[in-house]
């Protein structure tokens, strides 16, 4: 029986890899999710055939309750809530891996030193991912509205990590007292909380990606502990993919991962950022006329578009522009939104064809030849200070060159700063017009404005 189960696990892992590969493109992402789901179903069902397995009633009840909750929340979640849901589900994965580690450490007499070390490592990483992801969820959900920076935070975090590693090494030698095991998990759960509390909202996409990688790594470690090929392969693939994505996103912000985790970027409002010039408002009708008689328009969406749920209206406006012969494209920054690929998902939901969506490297050279760059809800990713102001916290971060279009129109609720608290020089540029209001309502006004032209 066991060889058949192991073969089924390999088949499941192969389906996970196919699914992950297809998720690399928006065109095939839907099929990728289906393939990965089938792999998970195969791995779950075949586990019931494992020899000497018990607790069938508890496992079935847990799968039924978890499945119902996941289906219910998945159907109801708004697109603006996707980052929170991903953070929450990712945390559950880390927590599950930590529970496996805890249970195996409780039966230390049945394992060798290597297995115990892996169980402790998976428990440590999974617990940090669990509690850190919950804090990330609370921040994204608005349950925690501020970042907490305190004196000596790096020393405290390093001390907690040192104690946790020491206890993990202790456990690997086969001595796992109950009170030290409890202390171990309390420490690592606290470490995840303290690591995440100081991180600002602008860095949340990188943090979510990092915790996703940690969860994959923890699952891989616990797969070795359970001798489960599906967990080993799937966890390793997720861990590797999440690590690469984290590095790419940190690179897109021109910052190191350590800087993202420990600098408290965006946690405090910046001061002393005087900017010359003033913001110049424009009415929606005037903006609609300007774009209707343009030849090339590039739209730069950001998290504000997601909050306003304006993706459908902006797509309706784009279609009207194209009917008038205007060439329109969407420019996506790698860290736009609150999770990797956030803008791509929103635009796909609205029905925007994939061939109209371009990454930073593909579209940046086209801004100088564009008549209008329409920025909706984006902020730091179009701030020219990243190119020119060495004193700016975002100096060196690659940005979308919206300021180099003939005219830049910015849709924004008000004159305040963004999540990072950094003043945006673009808003004060001579060629920038500010179109104030709720993103969805402004886009509806743009649609009406262009329809009135006939």
Q: How many distinct helices?
A: 17
Beta percentage is: 5-15%
Strand order of the largest sheet: 3-2-1-4-5-6
Task: Classify the secondary structure makeup into a structural class.
Answer: alpha/beta
Give the averaged pLDDT, no decimals: 88
**Care to count the β-strands?**
6
Which assembly state applies to the chains in this document?
single chain
Order of helices and strands: HHHHHHHHHHHEHHEHEHEHEEH
What form results from the Cα inertia axes?
globular
Task: Note the main sheet.
Answer: 6 strands, parallel
Low-confidence stretches: none
Q: Cα-atom Rg, whole angstroms? A: 25 Å
Q: Helical percent range?
A: 55-70%
Distance between the termini: 72 Å
């Amino acid at each position: 029986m066991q060889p058949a189960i192991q073969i089924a696990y390999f088949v499941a892992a192969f389906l996970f890899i196919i699914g992950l590969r297809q998720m690399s493109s928006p065109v095939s992402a839907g099929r990728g999710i289906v393939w990965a789901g089938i792999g998970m179903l195969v791995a779950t069902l075949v586990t019931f055939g494992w020899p000497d397995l018990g607790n069938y009633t508890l496992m079935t009840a847990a799968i039924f309750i978890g499945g119902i909750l996941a289906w219910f929340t998945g159907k109801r979640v708004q697109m603006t809530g996707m980052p929170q849901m991903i953070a929450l589900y990712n945390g559950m994965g880390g927590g599950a891996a930590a529970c496996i580690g805890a249970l195996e450490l409780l039966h230390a007499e049945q394992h060798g030193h290597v297995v115990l070390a892996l169980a402790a490592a998976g428990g440590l990483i999974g617990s940090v991912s669990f509690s850190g992801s919950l804090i990330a969820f609370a921040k994204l959900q608005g349950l925690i509205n501020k970042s907490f920076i305190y004196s000596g935070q790096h020393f405290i975090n390093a001390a907690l990590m040192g104690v946790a590693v020491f206890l993990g090494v202790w456990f690997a030698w086969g001595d796992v007292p109950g009170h030290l095991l409890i202390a171990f998990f309390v420490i690592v759960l606290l470490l995840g909380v303290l690591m995440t509390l100081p991180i600002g909202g602008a860095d949340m996409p990188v943090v979510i990606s990092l915790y996703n990688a940690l969860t994959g790594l923890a699952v891989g470690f616990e797969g070795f502990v359970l001798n489960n090929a599906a967990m080993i392969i799937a966890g390793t693939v997720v861990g590797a993919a999440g690590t690469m994505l984290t590095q790419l996103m940190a690179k897109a912000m021109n910052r190191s991962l350590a800087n993202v985790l420990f600098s408290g970027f965006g946690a405090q409002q910046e001061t002393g950022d005087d900017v010359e010039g003033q913001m110049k408002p424009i009415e929606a009708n005037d903006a609609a006329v300007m774009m209707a008689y343009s030849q090339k328009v590039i739209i730069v969406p950001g998290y504000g578009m997601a909050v306003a749920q304006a993706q459908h209206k902006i797509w309706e406006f784009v279609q009207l522009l194209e009917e008038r012969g205007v060439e329109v494209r969407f420019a996506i920054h790698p860290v736009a939104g609150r999770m990797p690929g956030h803008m791509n998902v929103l635009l796909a939901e609205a029905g925007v064809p994939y061939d109209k969506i371009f990454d930073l490297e593909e579209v940046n050279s086209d801004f100088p030849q564009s008549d209008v760059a329409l920025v909706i809800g984006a902020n730091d990713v179009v701030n020219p200070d990243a190119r020119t102001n060495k004193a700016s916290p975002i100096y060196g971060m690659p940005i979308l060159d919206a300021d180099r279009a003939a005219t830049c129109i910015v849709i924004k609720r008000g004159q305040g700063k963004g999540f990072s608290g950094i003043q945006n020089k673009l808003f004060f540029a001579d060629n920038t017009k500010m179109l104030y209001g709720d993103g969805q309502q402004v886009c509806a006004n743009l649609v009406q404005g262009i329809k009135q032209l006939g």
